[in-house]
User: Fold these one by one.
Assistant:
Number 1:
Amino acid sequence: MLSGQQCTVAELAESTGAGVPRTGQTLKRLAGLGLVRRVGRGRWEAVSPRSALSALLHRRRSEAEAMYGEVEAELSGLHRLYRVNQLRSDPEALVGVLSDPEAIARRIDEVNRSVTTHLWTLDKPPYLDVVGQPHFHEREKTTTREWAERGWI
């Protein structure tokens, strides 16, 4: 079909070695996806692969994004429920106190990695540095550059 010639179901079935019923069903599925079209009584032709596949990919991407949005909403609801029950059973969980420098560094890293929109900090005390390494201006510039690339700032 990609040769640009129109064909019938029977002609296509013969050239592919598939049966007429199966070829007819396949053409209907392809037409539903926008990859082929009926051009007359019993005749079919391929649609330009660039336009047909671009439209199909765009449609699938939109479907995936909609599904992702639904999953995100469900995830938010589950997290809220978890947080409410956690605070009900352990009100002190609202505030966490960390004193171990490595635990602090791990928690800061976890928060940085989980940010989806913005993370605001008021200062940069030494506990934001990698444990065991002195603070370097270059590291701060690298971190800022990474955040900018992610669109966080």
Number 2:
Amino acid sequence: MGSRGASARGAHGVRAAEESFEQFYRDCRPRICAVLASMTDDTRYVEDAAQEALVKTRELWSRIRGYDKPEAWTIKVAVRLMRAWQARDLRQTALTEDAGSHRGPAEEAAGRLDLHAAIRRLSDGNAAAVNLHLLGYSTAEIAGILCVEVDAVKTRLSRSRKALKALLSEEE
């Protein structure tokens, strides 16, 4: 009977871990996609990188769920995946065609430039810093996610505020 009790507790623990990951997935996925979308106009990377990062998180959930901010770890993985895929695709594109400017919908669309589109016009690092800041991460947490110094995050945020002000005032 003792082994049956241990088995039941083990099954309950697995169920609890599954349920906690499912809740994490539901809460975290939209925020990961928002961060990634702020970094690129090419949406094919966003969903794939978010999903792949969440798969990696699930594989390591027993360890990652104990982190102070498991979402930050997952965003970091997603950003790295997306950047690696973009770099690979850029190298392949350069080999097959003129790697000229590929303008996304935000740049090509006529009409009013909204904040999200303006953020996407920032450099990848600045856009990621702004989006993470808007999600409520501290500068230290943003630095950890983006693998840069805290001062670099402060600089990115300051420059981004100025750039966004200019971009948004252009449209008025």
